[in-house]
Amino acid sequence: MKRWTVGALTALVVTAGPTAVLVTAAPQAAAGCVYGGGVISKCDGPVQPDGAWLRCVGTAGTVPSGFSTHQVPVRQCTLMGPGQPARDAVFTDPPAHIAD
After folding, report:
1. Residues 28-44: pLDDT tens digits?
2. Cα separations (Å) of 11 from 15, 26, 78?
3. Do residues 72 and 63 make contact, with C-beta atoms less than 8 angstroms apart?
4. By mean pLDDT, which of 16-25, 58-67, 77-86 is the weakest?
5. What is the three-class DSSP state of 51?
6. Bridge partners, 79 (sequence order)
7. Residue 21: count of CB within 10 angstroms of its CB
8. How far is CA 94 from CA 16, 42, 68, in A?
């Protein structure tokens, strides 16, 4: 019985592994976020008094695994706003703060 349980759990993890990682690592649904497109998600923090905000972008990264590969979520954050040009084009769309 133990072998069957371990085998079933292993098959489930192997089958749903990359999908399960993306689902469990996805940010909570909230205002100020955009999902889909070329990235997993884009979320903006609150606007600070100086007009800047923190934008975090979730993308899929590829990790080698033996003779195969799998995807894992990668989160990158940068400061956006007046006088804070984004260094990466993935951060600049949309160029303004994502509305709450």
Report:
1. 444 589 998 889 999 99
2. 6, 23, 38
3. yes
4. 16-25
5. coil
6. 54
7. 15
8. 32, 9, 35
